Inverse folding.
């Protein structure tokens, strides 16, 4: 709890400095609050106006755990998530779903009757970012993607791993060491046959999903668009070719047949103008078509289905989404491809 209170104090002090509002926090004595996982009541005051929030303080908030913050609970006080650091994609999800949050840096989204605060420009210092080695940054995530999707690479020459992951050869040894330190890698001790085996693959896949969404995926974004002809929202499957692979809800539909996309996600290494011409897209910052650059080599004949992004990528995008249909589809992908 001491770490939690330190995070809270940093956040409310910075919020008070940025807004001039008065702040106070009281730990809750209500057993119902405690049983639901709330830490106390946060008071925000401006003049005669006062707002009260049930505070849920998180030392580290991962994308796959966000659904536990929106707990069903009968109260007239809105919920406020307080965390040391919140990944940018998760902040967007919170705002879209009306969930209040406050970072230790002072960045926040607070929207309730009579109050609206959105602060996005405060720098997140290194002490506030969860500690992580190279394994959970861009090059490490590409490395993990390769050995999860192609298990034989784990015991291949370093050059083969680096070539598949499209990362520097000199990073492979260190990444394997980190993988071992985090207890995802087991040495078999065999003189013949595989030297290494992956351990805790389910935990590894979920953690990869969290950090892919937070650290790698935002760097791949090329922009948002909408179809010039709105009927293409229903006939999107006719629009692709081997240079375009569908992720997100589209990939979930292609892999399971369960989901009918409302938002479209596509990966392509073609020039943006060519993609716009092929799919008849127009730039639209609020559009329901998201374009990203793939970090893997596009396969012209993917065994997983026509023009689907890799199941691991689609799983990550759907399992960390607030939409229950998407999470159900992610479970089906997990059962079909990873169990």
């Amino acid at each position: 709890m001491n770490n939690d209170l330190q995070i809270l104090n940093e956040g409310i002090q910075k919020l008070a400095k940025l807004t001039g509002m008065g702040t106070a926090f009281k730990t809750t004595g209500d057993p119902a609050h405690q049983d639901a996982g709330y830490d106390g009541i946060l008071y925000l005051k401006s003049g005669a106006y006062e707002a009260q929030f049930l505070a849920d303080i998180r030392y580290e908030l991962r994308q796959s755990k966000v659904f536990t913050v929106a707990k069903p609970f009968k109260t007239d006080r809105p919920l406020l998530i307080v965390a040391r650091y919140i990944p940018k994609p998760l902040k967007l999800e919170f705002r879209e779903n009306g969930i209040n949050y406050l970072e230790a840096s002072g960045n926040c989204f607070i929207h309730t009757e009579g109050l609206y605060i959105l602060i996005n420009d405060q720098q997140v210092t290194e002490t506030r970012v969860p500690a992580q080695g190279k394994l959970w940054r861009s090059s490490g995530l590409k490395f993990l993607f390769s050995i999860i999707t192609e298990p034989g690479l784990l015991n291949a020459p370093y050059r083969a791993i680096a070539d598949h992951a499209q990362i520097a050869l000199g990073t492979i040894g260190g990444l394997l060491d980190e993988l071992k330190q985090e207890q995802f890698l087991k040495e078999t001790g065999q003189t013949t046959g595989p030297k290494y085996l992956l351990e805790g693959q389910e935990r590894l896949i979920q953690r990869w999903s969290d950090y892919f969404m937070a650290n790698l995926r935002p760097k791949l974004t090329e922009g948002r668009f909408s179809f010039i002809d709105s009927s293409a929202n229903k006939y999107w499957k006719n629009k692709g070719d081997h240079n375009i692979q569908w992720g997100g809800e589209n990939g979930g539909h292609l892999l399971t047949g369960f989901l009918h996309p409302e938002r479209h996600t596509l990966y392509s290494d073609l020039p943006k103008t060519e993609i716009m011409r092929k799919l008849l897209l127009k730039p639209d910052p609020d559009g329901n078509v998201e374009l990203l650059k793939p970090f893997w080599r596009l396969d012209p004949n993917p065994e997983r289905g026509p023009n689907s992004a890799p199941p691991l990528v689609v799983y990550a995008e759907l399992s960390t989404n607030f939409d229950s249909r998407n999470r159900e589809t992610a479970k089906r992908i997990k059962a079909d491809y990873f169990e």
